[in-house]
């Protein structure tokens, strides 16, 4: 049996990634989250999403001796020069405080007209094998930022992010609607295609 480690403590993310990666992993595969593998958090010291994804995947592969898969993602706002970027989860100074992060971003864009509120969700996905091979892929979901939060689904900046071609915020969409066009979906679809051509994972 092959074992993969998903370098995340998020069960929702595990389910999402298994849906995408399932065809590549095959039936005779065990998938563990970071918690199930006994892994703690890793300091994300990179300056790009790809660097942070690789840091997490390398640490998990080294600690477990199994191929590890990780991602790093966030929101990049055009008028802020790409910020919050890799600091998305701690934009307000409090890591993981979704409401505070969202409210600060809205305040920073308070006087910005609708036509200048372009933004993108970005995701970098990485896989590192036990023997040190590294693979990366990126995904982007373009859109714009609303002036107030709407919707109860999703997390993070979803209530103020309106994907391109939609009038709904990401938090107003069903999980299936959001995932079909999400940055994470694009990144992991691309990573899955790369891994499908590899052997001895």
TrEMBL record:
Its EC number is 3.6.1.66. Pfam families: Ham1p_like. GO terms for molecular function: dITP diphosphatase activity; ITP diphosphatase activity; metal ion binding; nucleotide binding; ribonucleoside triphosphate phosphatase activity; XTP diphosphatase activity. It is an enzyme of class 3 (hydrolase). The keyword NAD does not apply. Mg(2+) binds at residue 72. Keywords: Hydrolase, Magnesium, Metal-binding, Nucleotide metabolism, Nucleotide-binding. It catalyses: dITP + H2O = dIMP + diphosphate + H(+); XTP + H2O = XMP + diphosphate + H(+); ITP + H2O = IMP + diphosphate + H(+). Its cofactor is Mg(2+). Binds 1 Mg(2+) ion per subunit. It comes from the Bacteria. GO terms for cellular component: cytosol. One of its GO terms (biological process) is nucleotide metabolic process. The active site is at residue 72. InterPro entries: dITP/XTP_pyrophosphatase (IPR020922), ITPase-like_fam (IPR029001), RdgB/HAM1 (IPR002637). Homodimer. Pyrophosphatase that catalyzes the hydrolysis of nucleoside triphosphates to their monophosphate derivatives, with a high preference for the non-canonical purine nucleotides XTP (xanthosine triphosphate), dITP (deoxyinosine triphosphate) and ITP. Seems to function as a house-cleaning enzyme that removes non-canonical purine nucleotides from the nucleotide pool, thus preventing their incorporation into DNA/RNA and avoiding chromosomal lesions. Belongs to the HAM1 NTPase family. PANTHER family: INOSINE TRIPHOSPHATE PYROPHOSPHATASE, INOSINE TRIPHOSPHATE PYROPHOSPHATASE/HAM1 PROTEIN. HAMAP family: Non_canon_purine_NTPase. This is dITP/XTP pyrophosphatase. It comes from Brevibacterium sediminis.
